[in-house]
Structures are given as structure tokens and as C-alpha cells.
Amino acid sequence: QVQLVESGGGLVQPGGSLRLSCAVSGSIFGVNAMGWYRQPPGKQRELVAHITSGGTTNYADSVKGRFTISRDNAKNSLYLQMDSLKPGDTAVYYCHAEITTPGLTTYGYWGQGTQVTVSS
Q1: Half-sphere exposure of 87 (CA within 13 A, CB side)
Q2: Phi-psi bin for 104: left (phi > 0), alpha (psi -120 to 50), beta?
Q3: Which of 2, 65, 76, 82 is most buried by a 10 A CB count?
Q4: How far apart are CA 104 and CA 88, in angstroms?
Q5: Burial of 40 (0-12, 13-18, 19+ CB in 10 A)
Q6: Distance of CA 73 to CAs 31, 46, 120, Å?
């Protein structure tokens, strides 16, 4: 069984920073591409940032220059450093990972989500 557990969300004032973490655990052969998604209130889930197993990154235009995605392959962990936060960044943030099981099948897994609220 594979689990993704996010942490680091909370309430922050505009212009502030937060760092999200996602820890992958369970029966894993390998962790491939990983990403952060978010779902603002009343809207669809959208990609925020993506990182390959080799470290290549890409970002949604709305967060470029403010957010930084990174990963620690030794710890099977994913991070999102969020700076210069805006009220429009308010959403539930989800971690996603493409994981290869010991049976060499690859599946996509989601975390449970962590709330980020940007408000004064």
C-alpha cells in the first residue's frame, strides 16, 4: 500500500511564505514524476508545478517566479516553497506521484490535500 501525506499548509498573510511537504511511503519500487496541484474553492483542480525524476521542472504561469518545486529522492519526498503569496493562491493543495510498485506496474497516487489560505 502506498501513501502520500502532505503537510505545511495553513493561514498566511498576502506576501508571506509557506513550504509544503509530501512524504511518500509504502511498498515502492521507484518514484517517477511528481507534482503539486491545487483546487481553489468552486473551481477545478489545476497543475501548479511538476518535477521529473531527473529534476526537470515546469510551473503554471500564475506561480512562475514565486513558487519552487523540489524533491529529495533519497527520502521519497516532494516540496513546494511558496513565496509572495496572493489571495488567489488560496486552495487545497494536493501532492501527486507516479509510483512504480514492486510488481513493476506504475500508478498515479494522490495525497489527501492540505489547505492553504492567503488572507489578511
Answers
A1: 2
A2: left
A3: 82
A4: 40
A5: middle
A6: 8, 24, 36
